[in-house]
Amino acid sequence: MSHSTVPRSGTEADATERTPVASGGATGTRDDRHRGRLSLRTRLRRDRVLLLMTLPAVVLVLLFNYLPILGNVVAFQDYDPYLSDNGVVSILHSPWVGVENFRAIFADSAFWSAMRNTLILFFLQLVLYFPVPILLALLINSVVRPRVRAVAQAVLYLPHFFSWVLVIAVFQQLLGGAGLLSQLLRQHGYDGLDIMTDPTTFKFLLTAQSVWKDAGWGIIVFLAALASVSPDLYEAAAMDGAGRWRRIWHVTLPALRPVIALLLVLRVGDALTVGFEQILLQRDAVGPGAAEVLDTFVWWNGVRNQDFGYAAAAGLIKGVVSLGLVLAANKVAHLMGEQGVYRK
Amino acid sequence: MTAVIGKPLREGPGRRAAPPRPVWEETPTRAGLAGKALVLALACLAILFPLWIVVVTSLSSRRTIDEAGGLVMVPRGITLIAYRELLGGGQVTRAAVVSILITLVGTLFSMTVSVLCAYGLSRTGSLGHRWILMTLLATMFFSAGLIPTYLLVQTLGLTDTYLALILPSAVSVFNILVLRGFFMNISPELVDSARIDGAGDLRILWAIVMPLSRAVLAVITLFYAVGYWSAWFNASLYLNDQSMLPLQNVMIQLVQKQEAPVGLAQSIKTGQLSGLAVQMAVMVMALLPVAVLSPFVQKHFRKGMLIGAVKG
């Protein structure tokens, strides 16, 4: 689909022009300084200050992002943390058990329950959360008064910067057993209710919390894409007799398409990660049956039960599947003719 | 608590009418406008109303709270007693100080490391530029996993130190990429002329690049600061000593688990102090810095997010 042989007119090309979000703002304005011609030593001398500047960040990333990958070997061990204070020593002395941990996990009903909860939450968020910022962005974009726009944006961005602890505390004050809703119900002679501890509605509660906290923040990307649409396009469409809704359909939405595709890719790639902190904070109140997801399953078995081999194996399963998902989602995005997270 | 934007926008003074509508655009219907306003107002209310209740209840006296039967919606008889008690030394005061210090030190450290790295990567074709960029980018696709990271922090001996709350999360690759995108957009002529005048890279970064990137520096500083201020998970993993806990973790104990703050249990029991007001005051302390700072940086957000996605 990506190679249409029909030459497109200028305006149309503009309409589908990649937004900076999707295509990256790196324009190679700087000269690629004769890379082949200089000897390694010359380049090293020339760039040594730049290299030194990147060093602290690179060391930290190697230490905390790359080095722990090796620690995943404990997934194939019956790891015993009490052998020594030093994790490396413990790893060297712990007995190897092959894929025993993985076999146990696949036979563990708690793991499958966590998997099911994770997937249900992912789909709920996709349906109930993902469209909200898009609709809000369209709404804000159609507001003409700059003052109204600025105030609305300031308010909508705000909750994104609150910690999950605070967001859940706020929800507790509104919907909890001692919260405002129960308070009002009781004052009018009904029974109070505690939405915060109800396992049946818990997944909807989580989604509502996510919307409250982050939907406003999600607007930004779409607003940026909308701001880059040339007004001429709207005018041309209007001249051709397109009404307000037709213009949204033929001009506005095509401008958003690459961004939506990119965010969908990111979201699908992250499908197994559904609000770790948010759920961990509420896990005890609701019970693991409804609240356990893969991340909390790993935390529970490792940090709480000290069964590190088992927990690391579960984490490894999640990590490998996630990586596969990201790559697959990217592939799909490329096939659809959109920019993915990285270029081919 | 409405967020007030400091300066009126560049479009002119606030009360000005909307900019003229293009000739071809239909005039919006009354109902359409009303509907739009209603949806926006509801969305803003959904955010502001809970915050309003929390703030008002934290400022209410024991009697007002008892009369309301719990949370207070209409302020009557403002009192600062809950804050006075909490900030008069003790558990919450200590936690707030810990949080402030970690936020300051952590943000300074993160910004230093990130700005240096972003500048070091801002010249395409420099030695190793591609490799280093790839190394950083790859981390956005995988994570080593909770358990190995946990074991690593223990092995490094960071347990029960504040370094465990700073170092593992000190570098955000995303933030480095945003900074780098900005630094790359600064006109090369400026940098070259400075180099001809004999300025070294550090000097160029400090005297030319950073002053020109104030907006993005403000945004990224806010991101890092909010990250440190809001973090609680690492503290719950690595700190066993109750007296070291930051504010968020104390908030979990006081608000979520409904424990009475150490030292105030007595006055809450005897009824001089409302337990609810104390809880709300802790929440206000956690949200105040964020709510005050973020609107100031707000107008730069969009630029920051734009350059966020950069490929190597």
UniProtKB/TrEMBL annotation, chain A:
UniProt KW keywords: Cell membrane, Membrane, Transmembrane, Transmembrane helix, Transport
Location, primary (coarse class): membrane
Domain ABC transmembrane type-1: from-to ranges: 115-329
Cellular component aspect of the GO annotation: plasma membrane
Residue spans crossing the bilayer: 49-69, 119-144, 156-175, 215-234, 255-276, 308-329
Pfam annotation, one family: BPD_transp_1
Keyword flag Lipid metabolism: no
Source superkingdom: Bacteria
Gene Ontology biological-process annotations: transmembrane transport
PROSITE patterns recorded: ABC_TM1
Keyword Protein biosynthesis assigned: no
Annotated compartments: Cell membrane
UniProt cross-references to InterPro entries, sorted A to Z: MetI-like (IPR000515), MetI-like_sf (IPR035906), UgpAE/MalFG_permease (IPR050809)
Membrane topology: Multi-pass membrane protein
Region (Disordered): 1-33
Family statement: Belongs to the binding-protein-dependent transport system permease family.
Protein known as: Sugar ABC transporter ATPase
Organism: Streptomyces nodosus
From TrEMBL, chain B:
Source species, domain of life: Bacteria
Coiled-coil stretches: none
Residues annotated as domain ABC transmembrane type-1: 96-291
Ranges where the record places region Disordered: 1-24
GO BP terms in the entry: transmembrane transport
Transmembrane feature ranges: 37-56, 96-119, 131-150, 162-183, 204-229, 276-297
Record InterPro entries: MetI-like, MetI-like_sf
One annotated Gene Ontology cellular component of this protein: plasma membrane
Annotated membrane topology: Multi-pass membrane protein
Major localization class: membrane
Keyword hit for Cell membrane: yes
Keywords: Cell membrane, Membrane, Transmembrane, Transmembrane helix, Transport
Localisation: Cell membrane
Protein's UniProt keywords contain rRNA-binding: no
Protein name: ABC transporter permease
Organism from which the protein derives: Streptomyces nodosus
